[in-house]
Amino acid sequence: MHVARPGRLSEVPYHPVVDLIHRVIGPAATNLYVLADPRSREAIAIDTAIPSVAWLTELLAGRGWTLKLIVSTHGHWDHIGDNAAVAAHTGAPIAAHPADRAMLEHPEPLFAPFPIPPSVPAVELAEGGRIVFGSIVLDVLHTPGHTPGSVCLTLRDEAALLSGDTLFAGGPGRVDLAGGDPGAMVGSLARLAGLDPTLRVLPGHGKATTIERELPWIGAVVRAGSLW
């Protein structure tokens, strides 16, 4: 597995099969996604909320997968709580956008019902970068608004967008929390509206949707230039 910086192209054999496991985790009902290449048996975990370490390590052992990366789509407590524990159990590095790095290193638990351990990103997710593991490629889109370093990931060959807390079924992510920026969110939504409308959207909370299904309200937001 490697993360390619923007502008560096990686030749990856075409193999459009991805094992994708989803589990709802913790008091904020965070969607944890585990993606694996069935041939190389390499995997990544996206948004390891508390309590995910026991379930995740059991899953990895049962499937014979090796975790190569822990991805945080942004730095809020309900998406990063088990980062440090999962990293300690698996040896996998943590990846986040540099604009949210401080949120991982010095977490603000807000209304969390338990302490949130700090975690240290070893890998930077940057606009235009790629996460490559086995023959699977994820492209990184920087989509600020919910937080300064929020990212979405497009899953090549599988027509899917892992949208974190930027885009949900029926609405955008909140912009009234730490790091929220309504103007930046409008810009990020406009960008997502330009993606393939058939993309399946896998958000950080709630049910899956598609870009096409969300276009009516996104279009209205973009035309108004405002979320309200």
Q: Descriptors for this entry?
A:
alpha/beta, 15 strands, 228 residues, 7-stranded mixed β-sheet
What's the structural blueprint in terms of helices and strands?
Blueprint: E1 2-4, E2 19-25, E3 30-36, E4 42-46, H1 53-63, E5 66-71, H2 77-80, H3 83-90, E6 94-96, H4 101-105, E7 123-124, E8 130-133, E9 136-142, E10 151-155, E11 160-164, E12 167-168, E13 171-172, H5 182-193, E14 200-203, E15 209-210, H6 211-224
Parallel strand pairs: 4-5, 5-6, 6-7, 11-14
Antiparallel strand pairs: 1-8, 2-3, 3-4, 8-9, 9-10, 10-11, 12-13, 14-15
Q: What report would you give on this structure?
A:
There is one protein chain. The protein is an alpha/beta fold. It has one domain (16-224): Metallo-beta-lactamase, Chain A. It has helices spanning 53-63, 77-80, 83-90, 101-105, 182-193, 211-224; strands at 2-4, 19-25, 30-36, 42-46, 66-71, 94-96, 123-124, 130-133, 136-142, 151-155, 160-164, 167-168, 171-172, 200-203, 209-210. Strands 1-8-9-10-11-14-15 form a seven-stranded mixed beta sheet. Strands 2-3-4-5-6-7 form a six-stranded mixed beta sheet, with helices on one face. Helix 5 crosses helix 6 (211-224). The longest helix has 14 residues, at 211-224. The radius of gyration is 16 Å and the shape is globular. Mean pLDDT is 93; it is low at 7-15.
